[in-house]
Amino acid sequence: MKKLLSFALAALMVLVCVFAFTSCGKKGKTLDEVKKAGELVVATSPDFEPFEFLDGETVVGIEVEILEKICEKLGVKLTLKQMDFDSVLPGVTAGKFDCGMSGITVTESRQKNMLFTDPYCLAAQAIVVKAGSAIQSKADLSGKKVSAQSGTTAEEFCMGNGYEVLAFTANSDAEQALLNGNVDAWVIDDLTAAAMVKEYNEGKADSEKLVILSEAMTTEPYAFAFAFGSETLVEEINKIVKGLLDDGTIAGLFAKYEAPYTAPSSAK
Ligand code: ARG
Prior knowledge:
268 residues, alpha/beta, D-Maltodextrin-Binding Protein, domain 2, three-stranded parallel β-sheet, 15 strands, binds arginine
């Protein structure tokens, strides 16, 4: 009898611990809670053209328009909070914001800490160098100094490959490090590389230009991030995203921002 009692007690303690653990981890709002609040509070780093960038004071871009459509369907207001990229994911997992929107790549390690919607496109890491650089491919990067944005998959990729990485909270500073000659190359997601390099190269002589190497180094699905606990919300948003993919709305947004579109279904 005594044995049985202590066994039951031990089992109860395990249950209490498991419950405490899982409920502590659940910081995200449910679908009902967001509807009740009447707004979706979204953390974003608007230095990522064409996905989110500043037009004067206003945050615009492909992801802003996707989330506007999602919020319209949910019947809530979209509220954007601006910050550096390395604050977006920690802020979401801590429950400070309902959602993260920042050209966020879904990775296995991030999935351990948060929820993601289904991806809506695929991107890749690209190498940017100065015209005339000796670096012509990924192989040439070994032993070189590269710049990347802090907390990104670009930084992770470069560290994983053993490059000497200079990380910057702002994408424009990572670009500037290359222009100043502080690094040999800048690693950044391909579509943002294309937009930023196009802007920089405008009106410059060929010898002054930045060049994007054609080698795509990764395959990265982009999605919106939520804290654990937001399962019902994510489920509802996935239905909306599927509709926007199926009716061509998302492909149309890439066309509007003059960016080539790769559908998530093209993943190998
Ligand atoms: N896709 C990359 C990642 O998830 C880079 C995202 C950077 N986003 C930004 N808004 N600066 O790590």
